[in-house]
Amino acid sequence: MFAEKINEPLSIRNGHLFVEDCDCVELTRRFGTPLFVVSENHLRANFRHYQSAFKKHWPEGRVRIMPAIKANPIIAVRRILTEEGGGCDVFGPGELEGALRGGVAGEDISVNGSIKNREVIRRAIDVGARVVLDSPRELELCEEEAASLGKIARVMFRIKPHMKELETESDFAPGFKICYLTQVIKYGIPTSEVLPMGPRAMELPHVEPVGIHIHMGRHSKKLEVWESWVRNCVYLTKEISDLMGGWVPQEMDFGGGFPSASDHDPDVVVKGYPGPSLDEYAQTITSALRDTMKECGLDASGILIEVEPGRGLHCDTGIHLTSVHNVKEETATLPRKWAEVDTSEVFLGVQGVSEEPYFNYVVANKMDQESTHKLDIVGLTCNAEMLVIDASLPETERGDVIALLDTGSYIEPMAANFNALPRPGTVLVSGAQADLIKRPETVDDVFARDIIPARLAG
Ligand SMILES: Cc1ncc(COP(=O)(O)O)c(C=O)c1O
Questions:
Q1: Is 50 a pocket residue for ligand 1 (Cβ < 6 Å)?
Q2: Are residues 177 and 207 in the same domain?
Q3: Residues 83 and 229 in one domain
């Protein structure tokens, strides 16, 4: 069978789009549409790529890849990453539960996030997870809960490095410098609060401060930004260390934010410039860490380093399949043609009108046909739902299957129920095998949380 590669998991065979060895048209017949599809082998390959890039550049100590479960919280997906040896970054009690159900050992879990309550801190300590502190209050809660459990809370300080000298503007909000936004956005412990926290942590008998955590997010793909971020992280770590009598973190976590080459970043204003390779990113982070620790007289040997990739790991592991239900055409008032599909912007985390398509797209059953027609691909809800304006497509008809590419990160977990629509299911492909790993919702699911007070029951 003729196979033309599109990218790692995707190929064209006999005019159809394949994910690994599964025909997408067959998948839609078996599982229906709309449908998310995830490639197991590509996810494994991406994970190994992260691991080898960081291991290569950090001979000083261990490397632990901690995928951010928020990017794809499906339990079967998480189990793949657990089999690969990944730790897990979680936010809040739900994601903590997801990581445990995904088979992650408690000690490989890192509980992140602002305003953690007593319950999630207790549960984290109880299962042996590490707590990434976001405030002095959380430190006190850790002591109280660890004492009551008779355990030790392993904690990290999530700090806010100040990149004073960095002029680069944010891709989210051009006009604002990243060094300003990383200070004003809420994440992390304000520097004025973290400095006294170090010595306080040393006094607490049930708390063990094990490391430092930073997460900048996706302000930029530029390596100079990452370099400054890590360098200033070490400067602040040195200040904390001095106040703690020479404490040296055993674990340094650099969070997520590494872009995927295929990510269209719908929420970023400045996009479309190339990002670094994973190797360059790993090299920049590790050399900034190594050099600045040396400059500060901190011993880097044996330090465990971690990253928490979300989109960089998952983005190109998934596609979304949707069927054309109707093609309509205006010829009287102005020329316009629409392909009406059974998915929606509310399942895809996009909104409004974008000149540039949010996703690359192909017609999965017509991969051998020229794109000779212009149509708008429009979704299901009562919104305008302009998923792709002026899409170039082959002659399109009811029953065609459109594939939106690179939908593997943050899309499925952000899907909503607008218009009381049940959200789509997800299929996992491994070679020629395809398994449903999240069933599609039903209308009963949509209304499952509704409660009718007795006075309205009649
Ligand atoms: C603490 C933390 N780590 C990792 C990530 C993953 O980021 P990304 O998907 O950009 O790699 C996030 C995302 O918000 C985060 O908040």
A1: no
A2: yes
A3: yes
